[in-house]
Amino acid sequence: MSAGIRILGIDPGSRSTGYGVIELDGPRSRCLVHGCIRCEGANLPERLLKILRDLEAVIREFSPSEAAVEQVFVRRNVASSLILGQARGAAICALAAAELPLAEYAPAQIKSALVGHGRAEKPQIQHMVKVLLSLRTAPSADAADALAVALCHAHLRRAPQRPGARRTARSAWRQFVPQAVPRSAKP
User: Fold this and answer.
1) Which of 15, 137, 164, 172 is 20 to 30 A distant from 39 in Cα terms?
2) CA distances for 117 relative to 73, 86, 107, 169, angstroms
3) Which domains does the chain have, with CATH numbers?
4) Residues 11, 23, 66, 145: which is the catalytic one?
């Protein structure tokens, strides 16, 4: 496979930040790397610095040309959402320092792009990431979420758009999945 567009996807978290780099070749995507930046036990400033530095290392090694990150979803615990926002900010700083174009997607939009609906559960995301990227095993939940962010961006950036039409994750999913899923994975 010749070198194509590389997309870094990030699922930010203050204790575990998932990352994944995919490479696009026409309608196909392949995974170059995925993993988690674990920040257990350190105080918040040290965890944020670890996220920043580890993502800078991934960027140096895999040279993505674009990046996508999951937006913060505010739940009942506002304090947790604020900390998550800080982790997301550290990730965005790594992307900005590398001058990578950044796209941001809501969790429901990412799920819709991969599974076809915005309420997909973690195992569904892991399974679709495994199938779409022809991985032998499903990645961990955080890494799968990061790869899902990258795939969502790949789907939406490639989806043809009619003049005046609104691009949605669901419309991109319907156009992309039939081309991207290997024949052996189709029923």
Assistant:
1) 137
2) 17, 28, 11, 9
3) 5-178 (3.30.420.10)
4) 11
pLDDT at position 171 = 44
Q: Is residue 145 among the annotated active site residues?
A: no
Q: Phi and psi dihedrals of 36, rounded to 5?
A: -135, 140
The catalytic residue among 23, 54, 66, 70 is 70
Question: From the first residue on, what is the mean pLDDT of each consecutive set of 10 residues in the chain (187 residues)?
Answer: 83 94 91 94 89 98 97 78 92 96 94 87 94 96 97 81 45 47 48
DSSP character string of 29-85 = EEEEEEEEEE-TTS-HHHHHHHHHHHHHHHHHHH--SEEEEEPP---S-HHHHHHHH
d(Cα 142, Cα 148) in Å, to the nearest integer?
Answer: 10
Query: Amino acid identity, residue 25?
Result: D
Give Cα separations from 181 to 29, 52, 165 (angstroms).
10, 33, 26
Token code pair at residue 102 = 């950044």
| 11 labelled catalytic | yes
Q: Which of 23, 54, 66, 142 is catalytic?
A: 142
